[in-house]
Design goal:
- By secondary structure, this protein is of the alpha/beta class.
- It folds into 2 domains: 138 residues, NAD(P)-binding Rossmann-like Domain (Rossmann fold, 3-Layer(aba) Sandwich), CATH 3.40.50.720; 193 residues, Dihydrodipicolinate Reductase, domain 2 (2-Layer Sandwich).
- The structure holds NADP nicotinamide-adenine-dinucleotide phosphate and ligand 3JN.
- NADP nicotinamide-adenine-dinucleotide phosphate binds next to helix 1, helix 2 and helix 9.
């Protein structure tokens, strides 16, 4: 029998904001890679990328790129996943997909390992990584639901521009300089690349993330609502969301209001279950002005929670402030955790 040299791993969208973080995470976690295949569109094919001190040349993603691949990590947009994920699965790969293409599909597990790892084993080749805003919120909701029950969630997000990709990051950089130089701003990417209207993000706040749906909510808001119910296995949970883009680069912050089911729950009890939950760091000490911020969370893989307060009118209502690096726990880190779980539990 030949010696096992590691898994064949393909990264689709390797040149993108999420793809770059996936590579950093695979390196950091010393993922057992035997062969690494980096894929992008035709545009970046031929680009060289350093990984573990070795240079890899990016190739255009095609169905045959997945011959022999064990694990394919997709983050190149929903249309690429729809076109190529099944091609990868048909060639024997398990796909961890970072897009919304299959998240709500029956039979596709939607996974945050700290919350619903065991759902992974029901996969038929594709496992979906939730939206970044959903991931950090459900990580905080799960321990509360398990201990006190959960009836209602109202969330407002404060989202970094890196969630909208590398072009949006460049737009904020250039626009901030132009604004301070008193130059005219020419927004072309945000709020949504490809939409008719664009608005300045520098020194602004845009209450639109992704496209509007017929019900008046944006797609990002509907992702949070539907994905939360699926991950927590709770169709009856009442969830509403307002998603807002703000002019900082990394980490999403969320103001989350929850109503629990049990009576007489105290702030101390909520803090205690959060402090003991996997992947959560409680930073909550108002007397010393201790609370998480996006800048401080950037580059870290945990979900940070602070500002736990009891609602003044609703005896079962509590407010939380939840912050996490949107490209790490919100995307790359969570995807690689799923891949690790597949291996650790023999679920490949
Ligand atoms: P990005 O910075 O714009 O990068 C897009 C990546 O996709 C690039 O590598 C690009 O390659 C590649 N790509 C584009 N068209 C392709 C094609 N036809 N075939 C193969 N590769 C193609 O965007 P990003 O921020 O990394 O996001 C990428 C996707 O990840 C998003 O569309 C979204 O679905 C998902 N995402 C998920 C989360 C989450 O919440 N979990 C967060 C952010 C993004 P080139 O260099 O050749 O253009
Ligand atoms: O805007 C953000 O902060 C997160 C964006 C995520 C995103 C961007 C473009 C397409 C997604 C996603 O993961 O939900 C998608 C998509 O796949 O629909």
């Amino acid at each position: 029998m030949s010696e096992f040299k590691g898994y064949q791993v393909a990264v689709v969208g390797a040149t993108g904001a999420v793809g770059q973080k996936i590579l950093e995470t695979l390196e950091k976690k010393q993922f057992p890679i035997g062969k690494l295949i980096l894929l992008s569109s035709k545009r970046s094919a031929g680009t060289n990328i350093k990984f573990n001190d070795q240079i890899y040349t990016v190739k255009e993603a095609k169905p045959e790129s997945f011959e022999g691949v064990d694990i394919a990590l997709f983050s190149a947009g929903g249309s690429v996943s729809k076109a190529l994920a099944h091609e990868a699965v048909n060639r024997g790969a398990v796909v961890v997909d970072n897009t919304s293409a299959f998240r709500m599909a029956e039979g596709v597990p939607l996974i945050v390992p700290e919350v619903n790892e065991s759902d992974i084993q029901k996969h038929s080749g594709i496992i979906a990584n939730p939206n970044c805003s959903t991931i950090q919120m459900v990580a905080a909701l799960k321990p509360i639901k398990d201990s006190f029950g959960l009836k209602r969630v109202l969330v407002s997000t404060y989202q970094a521009v890196s969630g909208a990709g590398n072009q949006a990051v460049e737009e904020l950089s250039e626009q901030s300089q132009a604004f301070l130089n008193g130059e005219e701003l020419e927004p072309a990417v945000l709020p949504v690349s490809g939409e008719k209207n664009h608005y300045p993000i520098a020194f602004n706040a845009l209450p639109q993330i992704d496209v509007f749906q017929e019900n008046g909510y944006t797609f990002e808001e509907m992702k949070m609502i539907n994905e939360t119910k699926k991950i927590l296995h709770d169709d009856k949970l009442s969830v509403a969301a307002t998603c807002v883009r703000l002019p900082f680069f990394t980490s999403h912050a969320e103001s989350v209001y929850v109503e629990v089911e049990k009576d007489q729950i105290t702030v101390d009890e909520i803090q205690e279950v959060l402090a003991n939950a996997p992947g959560i760091v409680l930073e909550d000490d108002p007397t010393n002005q201790v609370y998480p911020t996006p800048l401080e969370a950037a580059g870290k893989s945990d979900v940070f929670v602070g500002r736990v307060r009891k609602d003044l009118d609703q005896p079962k209502g509590f407010h939380l402030w939840v912050v996490s690096d949107n490209l790490l726990k919100g995307a790359a880190w969570n995807s690689v955790q799923i891949a690790e779980s597949l291996i650790k539990n023999n679920w490949l």
